[in-house]
Amino acid sequence: xxxxxxxxxxxxxxxxxxxxxxxxxxxxxxxxxxxxxxxxxxxxxxxxxxxxxxxxxxxxxxxxxxxxxxxxxxxxxxxxxxxxxxxxxxxxxxxxxxxxxxxxxxxxxxxxxxxxxxxxxxxxxxxxxxxxxxxxxxxxxxxxxxxxxxxxxxxxxxxxxxxxxxxxxxxxxxxxxxxxxxxxxxxxxxxxxxxxxxxxxxxxxxxxxxxxxxxxxxxxxxxxxxxxxxxxxxxxxxxxxxxxxxxxxxx
Length: 251
Ligand code: SAH
Description:
This protein is of the alpha/beta class.
């Protein structure tokens, strides 16, 4: 594609693949894929996006799953460095945005430490673009703040540093990534912090994909609704007044 910078041999581009729909890939991400010698991708990257990887490129699936820690992360970094040092044009492809709950910062730091040149190509993060696809705007006139947090701490439970009550009291809209397992604790703590049980809440699964599913409820009832419906993952938890706009914003 003309006008875009080329990937220099021996460098790594950390590229966001968006929430799944290949139409949400940026032009720069598409350009990067077309030039790659090696693509190292996460389990979260949509199959429609993977189909855009040229047949000539080596494709390496690094299914980094929630819960696994540093050894896997180190393997990924070592792999990127090894291919870059071999003079390859490397694309590290991540679901959503590489710098949003994706360890993109850690991977970029590993590259910097190894003296490998890299570029960040931002992507549409699930917690903004994916929710938009579900008819949930994160801001509107009635919303003055949004908090994004992870429901997945270092050992699979909530991070002890996460001030759930503080977020619940201060942010109008709350978006939690990786929060299905810890949802009972999260919702309980938000209710105890004084958040209105009637606050609209939703689980958005497979956002932007043909099998996108949205479960709407309210904070006080969400836990039971999720237990009954068992929404598929990946899924986002979103809480706040604008969830109710979905009714009018989806056909
Ligand atoms: N870097 C990604 C987030 C990775 S963390 C981004 O910017 O979107 C993984 C979590 O992202 C999942 O547990 C889920 O909460 C969320 N997620 C990613 N893709 C999603 C999708 N298509 N639909 C719903 N949630 C998604």
